[in-house]
Amino acid sequence: MHMADALVSPAVGGTLWAASAATIAYCSSRVRKNLDERKVPLMGVLGAFVFAVQMINFTIPATGSSGHLGGGLLLAILLGPAAAFLTIASVLTVQALFFADGGLLALGCNTINLGAFPAFIAYPLIYKKLLGCTPSQSRMVMAALIAAVVGLQFGSLGVVLQTLASGVSALPFNTFLLLMQPIHLAIGVVEGVVTALVVSFVYRARPEVLESVLQDKPLGELPVRSLIMTFLVAALLIGGGLSWFASENPDGLEWSIARITGSSQLPEESLLKHEKLAAIQEKTDLLPGYSLPAQTRKGNDAASTVSDERIGTSLAGIVGGTMTLVLCLLTGLLLKKRARDQRIRQDVGHNCQADDSYR
Amino acid sequence: MLAIDGSFLDFKQLDLLALRQTAVHRLDARAKVLTTFCFIICVVSFDRYEISAMLPFLVYPAVLMAVGDLPGSCILRKIVIVVPFALLIGIFNPVFDRQVIMQLGPIDIWGGWVSCASILIRSLLTTSVALILVAVTGFPAICEALEKLGMPKVFAVQLLFLYRYIFVLTDEGVRTARARQLRTFGKRGFGISQFGSMVGHLLLRTWDRAERIHMAMLARGFSGEFRTTRSQNRFGRKEVVFMGGWISLFILLRAYNAPKLLGSLITGTMP
Lengths: 359, 271
What we know:
heterodimer; A: mainly alpha; Arp2/3 complex 21 kDa subunit ARPC3; 3 domains; 12 helices; 2 strands; 1% strand; globular; B: mainly alpha; two-stranded antiparallel sheet
């Protein structure tokens, strides 16, 4: 599934954006260096092909529900890892912009989850290894099936970890994992079967299409170490910078860690941190009357922190919020009316000019 | 008509909206892309129990839709399709987070409900600005802007290629699907094995098309980049005002909870 902007925190979104941007840069330079010029239009058109195929549904046997192709592994098999990653990333970008699938900040997460795992793990480490040097059709089917399942399992694990690290959702780690992995096992099997069907069809009809990719040089000298280093440095920089920026909300990760370990008590250290932050906040006093969420004061008297003052501020919040909404909408409507009047005036102007020219 | 025909038309509609000529449409794409990113980062950086402070951010999509003369129904319909996916995860919050953090008269409100509502609002805000960005800028202009901001050229070419051929290939896919539907008396299709060979044929046709395109491109002197007429836009005073104004507004709204201040002014609980 696609990760959504609404579930992601700036630190997680930014880190994965940096990671996917680095991977895109690496893949771009690789594609340009190899300069197989035939691949340039092929990548574009195959991306569009995946788009078109995603719109066509099929019935999944024995369930009656319908599914569609994800296409990550298929692209890797047809294009090789680097070109496939770029193609998947471009498809996801278009989806994020035109269908708001996922979202712009979550685009980095989605590119890694749906692009990097099929292209750099499922294809080279599983599909190619299982296929061996002498490809046969039955081997191809098995390899595609297993590779698709593994790729999707990694992808859904990515979604789980990113959601938890963001700390917007309250789902505990175990529950979320038990929810996501089986669903994606089923999706992976379907994806694998469909990929295998398409690949074996192509193998029968036009084997040279697949052989040209297989003869490509293997992914030998992938600079794993430098990639990981870039990843780490970017994570530290962005994570540090952004969590300082959003310092009222430092408890995303700690909170999810607390959930994972199953203890409702936050670790001592983070409590201390909260106190410090609270002190800083009181000093700067950006938000008069703002009290930290009850979660952070999880001492003995969590419930009793709900004081009258809190109710007062929440009432103020509701009244003010409603008014803000009304104001926003009114501004929009007023401006809209003006814009429409202007357009009508322009159209009328155009028509008058056209009439003049007829005369 | 097939359902996929419908979603395909939706796709085209957003593209057509980008052709309008309004003050927002004429701005340089870089300003709009960067402002949108700032907007999203500000919105998602809120605390997970925050609701009221996010509401004023609605002013950005509202103003852009108004000035850009975009039909609200079209954008709203697209948002309604996407929001349930985020809500699917958010709806678990009330199950696991039952701490009372707010009281409305006699009703206790759990933290889970508050954070679930917060996810809903985040989702509305972030999806609407993404769609509006395309509708007031257009995809080729966004690609150009991203390239100027440092995206690798190969990826920019890939995005433009993909965009160009989506329309061609979706057309072909829709025709194939319609032919299949006519032969199955309204059922969704024959199932997975026929889907395999159908898609396989589509793939082979696509492959041949790519080779024809490549030859045509070589005949016209393609050397690795698109030589299109670039837009004449430059980053002028209007862009600086647009970006500066909005981003400072976002930062202000991020720092101060405007609805709460307004509310306490009215209810008289101002400290």
